[in-house]
Amino acid sequence: MNHTILLVDDLQMFLEIEKDFFKYAQVNLLTARDGAEALDLAKSHKPDLIFMDLQMPRMDGAQCCRAIRSVPEISGTPVVIISSSSDANDKEISVEAGCNYFLTKPAGRDRFLEIAREFIPGINRRERRIPCNVGAVLNVNGKAIACSLHDVGSDGAFVVTDFPGEPGNVVNLSFTLPDGTVIDSPCKIVWTSESIVVRPKGLGVKFALMPKEVRSSLTRFLEGNSKR
C-alpha cells in the first residue's frame, strides 16, 4: 500500500514543482491551495506527511498545522512548513504551531526527498542506509571538525555535527571502515536537520569523486552489514 503525501501551496507553480519531486516515488499525492482545503483533506484522507506553505490566504500554514494538532485522528500527522522567507519569526510561529520541520524556499528535490524519508523511509532511494556510530572528520576550508556518522550508504551519509553547513556547500568527509579502509571524499551538503525532531543535529551529505577502489570497499561494508 502506497503512502500518501499532501502538498499545500496557494501557487500552482510551486505545487507542480513539488509534485515533480515525487514523480518517481511510490506515493499517492494530494494537493490543496490553502489551509482550509488542506485541513479538510487531512481529515478525510489522513495523509502520512504534509508539506505546507506558510503564507496562504483563508488559513495559513501555521493556523492549519495548529488545527491539525487539535483533531485527535490526525494530530500526529508529520507537517513540514515551508516559507519563502528566512525570517526567524516565521520559523518561531511554525514551530509553536507544532510543525515537525521548517523549510525555507527555494528547496530542491534532494532536500524534499531526504526530509520525506525521515517520516516515510525508503522513498525513491536506490541504496539502503546502514545505521552506524562511527567517528569521522569534516574538513571545511582547511579546518578539521570532529563529528560522527548516524548512517551511511553508497551515495552519502548523515553526519552528526554542530557545524552550521548550508545546502549546496562542498566539504570533505573522512572516516575509517572496520577493515581499516579510509574513506576520504568530497561531499555536497544536501540538507540540514536543525529543525527535524527525529534526528540529531547534523548534515545530510552526498559523496562525490570517490575513487573506485574506495567505493568498492564501502560497498562491501554495506553489503556485509545489510545481511545482518
Describe this structure in words.
The protein has 228 residues and is of the alpha/beta class. It folds into 2 domains: 3-119, Response regulator (Rossmann fold, 3-Layer(aba) Sandwich), CATH 3.40.50; 130-225, predicted glycosyltransferase like domains (Thrombin, subunit H, Beta Barrel), CATH 2.40.10.220. The chain is 29% helix and 33% strand. The protein is built from 6 helices and 11 strands. Helix 4 (88-97) links the parallel strand 4 and strand 5 (101-104). Helix 2 (35-45) runs parallel beside helix 3 and helix 3 runs parallel beside helix 4 (88-97). The model has no long low-confidence stretch (mean pLDDT 87).
* CATH fold topology of the largest domain: Rossmann fold
- Given as residue ranges, the uncertain stretches (5+ residues, pLDDT < 50) are none
**How many DSSP helices?**
6
Number of discrete domains: 2
Level-1 CATH class name of the largest domain? Alpha Beta
Helix content percent band:
25-40%
